[in-house]
Every structure is written in structure tokens, then in C-alpha cells.
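Forwarding these from the shared drive since the link keeps breaking.
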Amino acid sequence: MFNAYLFKIYLVGFIPLFLIALVTWLISLWKRDVSIVDSVWAVFFLAAATSFAFKLPFLGPRGIILLTLLGFWAARLSTYITWRNWGHPEDSRYRTIRQNNEPNFAWKSLYLVFVLQALLAWVISAPLLVILASPIPLQWSDFLGIAIMLFGFSFESIADWQLAKFKANPSNNGKVMDTGLWRHTRHPNYFGEFCVWWGFFLLAIASGAWATIISPLIMSFLLLKVSGVPMLEKDIIQRRPAYRDYAARTNAFFPGLPKP
């Protein structure tokens, strides 16, 4: 687990995240759109892991595997979110936050949105440092963690591709996506993200870092109770009445067979 040496590396690892948050905030002032923070959410983790790796004296196979998996995950997610949001106005979730924190939201958004997300990412990144610093040979839990992470990565990637293809068809305008992975869960992209972080945790426990379970627990809580499912579904039935029937027959998060 964390000794004084690793804890110092962990503390310093917040610096690049804060700098990314600061630069992104400055861009948001110019664009008047704080939802661009979503594009750097995955970048925060890659920046933290890279910072940790540079300060460690060596990287074993586990660390190299982690950086590779994390790099593909961050590149895909950041690129997809940037492409999805390009040319669109500020996300409705952030417009609500903006309205609730006027006046001077432009300045408040630095800590309410950007630094807060950087801080969350830094806390959640704790298992990444343990994995990178571990000298222990690969064990069964590593291969299980890699399998779960790759499953989650594939699940959310396919879900995002299916939804993008659905939205690209003009005949689907205003309709609810209920095919493919979306037939089995209303939020397959979030379920995939859930698997990714529990997979990373399994890579960390080979070093006895059970305490880092706080990271996947925080991520799971955010997806299930805060910024994930509840926030997206808060007013979706008002915007899309057909979603009521879809929600009645489809699991919210964990995949399952549709109800009759």
C-alpha cells in the first residue's frame, strides 16, 4: 500500500491535473461552455498515471500493461466525447449548474466544475499509483482485472458506437434507442465504465492495496447515484415520453433481459 515515498508521489500527482483543469477553464471562459470539462475527464487519469510513472524508479510488466490499457481508454473516451459535443451548445446539466450559481458563475466554475473534477479524478487515481509501483509478478487477479477492464472498455465502446449510429439516422430523431446493448441496459456506456474501474482495482490488490477499493466505490457511486444515471434521467421522460415504456422494461444499469 502507500508508504511515505509513494504518498509524496501521489500528492505531487495532483499538480498536472490542476494545470489541465486551469487551462480547460480558461478555454471555457472563451467558449462560454463548461461542458468541455467532460472531454478532459479521461485525460485527468492518464495525466496522473503518467506523472506517477515518471517519478518511479522502474516500471514492471503490471505498470506497462496499465499505461497501455489506460492510454487506449483515455484516448477513445476523450476523442468520442469531444466529437459528440462538437458544435453543440453547453450540456443541459451544466446549464442548470450555471443557473443555480449566478452571478459570477464564470469564476465560480473554476472550483465548482474544473478543480472539483480534477480532485475527484486524483482521488480515484490512487490504485493507478499502486499498480505502477508494484514489483510483484503478475498473478491471477491481474489477468482477471485485465479481462474485466477489456470487457468494460469494449462494452462502452460498442454502446457509444451503436448510439452514434442511431442518432446519425434522421428517421430516429426523437426516438428512444432500445436495440443492441441498449436493449439490455439503459446505460451500457456507464456499465462499461463501471467494469473498467473495478478491473483496475483488481490489478491493485495483488500488492495488498485493498484500501484503494474506495476508488471504484466512488466511481460506482457517481455513476449510479450522482452524475450518471440520475442526472441523465431526471427530466428525460418530459423530453421523450416514449422513454417511460423503455424504462419500465429495461434495467437501468446492470444488463439483463428486457421485461415483457
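-- next protein --
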Amino acid sequence: MTSIYGDALFVDPRDMAIRLLKEIIRRKLPIQFHCPNGLHLRDISSELSTLIFKAGFKTLRFGLESSDAARQIMTGGKVCNEEFTEALICLRRAGYRDQDIGIYLLCGLPGQTAEEVRESVRFVRSCGARQIIAEYSPIPGTDLWDEAVASSPYPIAEKPLFQNNSLLPCRNDHLTYEMYHSLKLMTRTPESTDI
């Protein structure tokens, strides 16, 4: 299995991805692909989904980040809920099963609440895809950096060690470490169980 880590692989697919996928199919290359990073969903269409499937892409991971419309805009507007659900329909029609499609949801963004993350998990679950919580890590120079510095209980600007996502550097009273663990557990429980 070959892993592809580029999250923009399917952005503007006519420029590269479609030609690449068609060539892989034409050559009948005996390769299986795994995409562990949060690929962009916006340009996923029926044609692209079919090519991805035929070219041997076995496991796909996409970044939704949040189902909250305001948060989606705040984090760059890469995809909205309607585009997300349409992409899932295209991928299923191409042959993907729900367990083949993992969706990353960010947890620990500046000012984020556990309820926002919980609602995002519920939304992805209701669409039939796997929910995967990814912990936010503040990165100097990004759009959220100043907000992260202001909201973090740690001196993240002075000590880069505190930027480590495993600490939940921007946790708050509405998203504690205990709540985070409960959310992680929620993604591992059957649909009927909601923590």
C-alpha cells in the first residue's frame, strides 16, 4: 500500500488529479493507495470519485473540521456541509463503503466548545462516514495564531513545547481535557450510544 500525504491532491482536479488517475488506470498499475491526511472535499464529483476508486485508492481521509457553518468560514471555508454530503454520495456511488471514508474533525480550536465538536461528530455519523477527532495544534504565522495565543492557558508564544496538540493548548471551561476524552470515546461507540 502506498500512502499519499498531500491534502490538496484533488483540488482543481482537471489540472492534475484526473489526468494522473486516468494514467494509473490505463497502465493497470497494481498499486493500492492510502490517503491518511485530510484531503479537500470540495471538488469531489461523480467522475472524480469513480476514477479514484478505479485507480486503487482504498482508504480515504477528508477534512471537514467542523459542521458549524461559522467555524467553517473562520477556518478558511474549504468545504460546507452541503458539499460534504454531496461528496459522500458521489464516493458511495463509485463503490466506497462508509468504513473506507474517514472524516477529520478538529477539536480544541480557540474558543471551541465540546458541544460544537459533539454536534460535528453527530453530523458526520448521521451521514454514515467514520468520525476521526484531530487535535488542533497552534502554528505561528497562521490566521488563528493570535487567537490561539490569547485563548491558551499556556505560554505558547514563548515556549513551543506548549503548542503540542496532545495538550489541547487552547482548551477552556467549555472544552476540558475530560470532555475531549468523552468526545474521543463517542467516535468509538456504536451509533445508538451518544455520550
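The chain has a mean pLDDT of 93. The beta strands are 2-3, 33-39, 57-65, 101-107, 130-135.

- D.
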